[in-house]
Amino acid sequence: MAGQELNIGTIQIEKGKIKALWEGSVDPSEAGDGEELLCVDGAWVMPGLIEAHCHMGITEEKKGMEGDDCNENVEPITPWLRAIDAINTMDAAFDDAIRAGITSAMIGPGSSNVVGGQFAFLKTRGRCIDDLIVKAPAAMKVAFGENPKVNFSGQNKSPVTRMAIAGMLREELFKAKQYLQKKEAGGNDFEADFRMESWVPVLRGEIPLKAHVHRVDDIFTAIRIAKEFGLYMTLDHCSEGHMIAKHLAKEGFPAIVGPDFSSRSKIEVQNLAFKTVGVLNQAGLCTAVTTDHPVSLIQCLPLCAGMAVKAGLAFEEGLKAITVNPAVICGVSDRVGTLEVGKDADIAIFDGNPLEISTKTLYTIIDGNIVYDAKNN
What we know:
Blueprint: E1 9-14, E2 17-23, E3 44-47, E4 49-54, H1 92-99, E5 102-107, E6 115-123, E7 133-143, H2 146-153, H3 162-185, H4 194-197, H5 200-203, E8 209-213, H6 216-228, E9 233-237, H7 245-251, E10 255-257, H8 275-283, E11 287-289, H9 301-310, H10 315-320, H11 324-329, E12 347-350, E13 361-366, E14 369-373
Parallel strand pairs: 4-5, 7-8, 8-9, 9-10, 10-11
Antiparallel strand pairs: 1-2, 3-12, 5-6, 6-7, 12-13, 13-14
Helix pairs in contact: 3-6
């Protein structure tokens, strides 16, 4: 409730939205015609949890190559690709998310390309992806460092250095900026370009660059380019962010940190640590926690926040890192992230502190509909 905590409270839902909320309980006899009263005495009632960066449904579990549509890894720059054309809502991870109280997620391409394509922010329950969209496109994925280098060096083509990654991204953004200038100027000689149209919402500040960055040098390169072109950007992973927290606080770009539950399986994540979220948060950054599913499993999201709290993040900030903060960072806080009148009725109900491993989800509610009931599962 926008940071408000009630020991006893009531939420009224109408047509998928929160109609009212107040302190105190309701007698069952007071329920109106057609209203269903859900009594959850002693439970934790929270905004639905939010995963700020993952690949569920686009890298399907148990499917191998046939179910892996995360990276178009034969072409380094693919801004026109749309995650919604590859996400399979029948992936088992969606059900796991629901069972964990996760009601929405930012989903998109991986990090093998300099520019990977467009992310989408979705609800986590439904069959037709078009019905799940909250915002699409919601971000443009770009990647720095080890992943593009390794992918394209094996193909004997650029980029094979960090210089080439930055140079190719600058060139693409330069062309996109020229395109937007011509588009806005109009004129009979303007011709629409499908590839360049993908950049328009980025250049207009409507959606962010979503930058895959782990190492300190890659973080600074991403910031340098974002400032050069006047772009809003999120720092995704930010594994060495704790080493430069004061610098990042001055720049002000939000950080989506993780997946700290994964192993240090490659060079650029040698310094990942659960303390990073707390260090950045204490420095003044808006921070969220990610599982980066399937790198670590989507249902571990609240546990990742719990481990960050154990490593120094304030408890309330741990809850914010999987609710309101990702909503703000992903540009959807007008609809989700807090329990407020007028927002989507996305609610997670737990039998205790959700950051503790033994806690169970009792109910998950999306758009006012109970999509998970522990008694029936």
